[in-house]
UniProtKB/TrEMBL annotation:
Source superkingdom: Bacteria
UniProt xrefs under PROSITE patterns: ABC_TRANSPORTER_1, ABC_TRANSPORTER_2
Family to which the UniProt record says this protein belongs: Belongs to the ABC transporter superfamily.
Protein name as catalogued: ABC-2 type transport system ATP-binding protein
Keyword ATP-binding: yes
UniProt keyword list: ATP-binding, Nodulation, Nucleotide-binding, Transport
Organism: Thiohalospira halophila DSM 15071
Molecular-function annotations in GO: ATP binding; ATP hydrolysis activity
Length: 309
């Protein structure tokens, strides 16, 4: 396709002020077509603000955003048509039925005969039974499914999901994973915001971490994981009261009963030396297990937040 070298999302030096608060402090981000991209960050980092600007729902104080090459301000309609956004907040009109809402949304994008696609979306999202129910008669998880159907009703090339799995049950979460993977497989660009870091780790190829309105890390998932300098060594001792040599005790992050967890620097610490020190001290070990860092470890190291969620 001639347009394939155009980035799906091109964000250049975007700033957003809310009064004195600078919610975005000059964000640059380029997301290529076909990427499964994770936009992570603690509460208040500016993720939804950035998504609102991408969707043209809010104006940047300065800088610009293009969706599939279309400027979100000067070429709003085309930029908007290229994007499907699943918002974080449940906003809906209570008096419309699910189908009416999807038909209205189709009309907004000039799609007059969208019935078969609407039926397919209702089916995939397990909403067929509720097609004629009013929005106010749906549960929270069902409303969220309708928001997802709304975002996809015009088959946008770029799909942005702002915490789609917050507060949804296991079944819907798995259905969403399948759906986003399917869309990605069909060539859609996916941008996902989530506080479930294992979800980002499972789905995303590349990740940006936003903190206090600035991108503090932008890398492939593996690149991010490799940045984290630690690895964990879990030991089970024969005697829970064993006195441990300094080479071991100085690296302990957790000790309970016979279990001891040590943190080793990947570049300088050697698990063999730690074990040798234990042997020399006559401490018996019944089990050894090493653990590679997770995205959550990297996230906490980078944002300094105690909690990811
Ligand atoms: N309409 C608004 N008016 C004033 N301040 C706002 C507004 N919207 C967001 N903010 C502020 O901007 C900052 C970023 O908020 P934003 O909603 O973008 O964060 P977020 O990364 O999406 O967080 P969360 O993970 O909680 O959804 C916060 O300090 C928030 O209080
Ligand atoms: Mg948000």
């Amino acid at each position: 396709m001639a347009t394939s070298d155009i980035p799906a999302v091109d964000i250049a030096d975007v700033r957003k002020h809310y009064g004195l608060l600078e919610a975005l402090k000059g964000v640059d981000l380029r997301i290529e077509q076909g990427e499964f991209f994770g936009l992570l960050g603690p509460n208040g980092a500016g993720k939804s603000t950035l998504i609102g600007i991408m969707a043209g729902l809010a104006r940047a104080s300065s800088g610009r955003v293009r969706i599939m090459g279309h400027d979100t301000v000067s070429d709003f309609r085309r930029a908007r048509a290229a994007l499907g956004v699943v918002p974080q907040e449940l906003v809906y009109d209570p008096f419309f039925s699910v189908r009416e809402l999807l038909e209205l949304q189709s009309g907004y994008f000039g799609l007059l005969r969208n019935g078969p696609w609407i039926d397919e979306l209702l089916h995939v999202l397990d909403l067929t039974d509720k097609a004629d129910a009013n929005m106010q008669a749906l549960s929270g998880g069902m409303k969220r499914r309708v928001l997802i159907a709304q975002a996809l009703v015009h088959r946008p090339p770029v799909v942005v999901l702002d915490e789609p799995t917050a507060g949804v049950d296991v079944e819907l979460r798995q259905a969403l994973w399948r759906l986003t993977r399917k869309l990605h497989g069909e060539g859609h660009t996916i941008v996902l915001t989530t506080h479930y870091l294992e979800e980002a780790e499972a789905l995303c190829d590349r990740i940006a971490i936003l903190d206090h309105g600035a991108v503090c890390a932008l890398d492939t998932k593996d690149g991010l994981l490799n940045r984290y300098p630690w690895r964990l060594l879990r030991l089970t001792l024969t005697d829970e009261h064993a006195v441990l040599p300094e080479a071991v005790s100085e690296r302990i992050v957790d000790r309970s009963g016979c279990g001891v967890t040590l943190r080793l620097r990947k570049d300088t610490d050697n698990a063999g030396e730690v074990l040798a020190a234990l042997f020399r001290a006559g401490v018996g070990v019944t089990d050894i297990h090493t653990e590679e860092p997770s995205l959550e470890d990297v996230f906490m190291e980078l944002t300094g937040d105690e909690e990811a969620a």
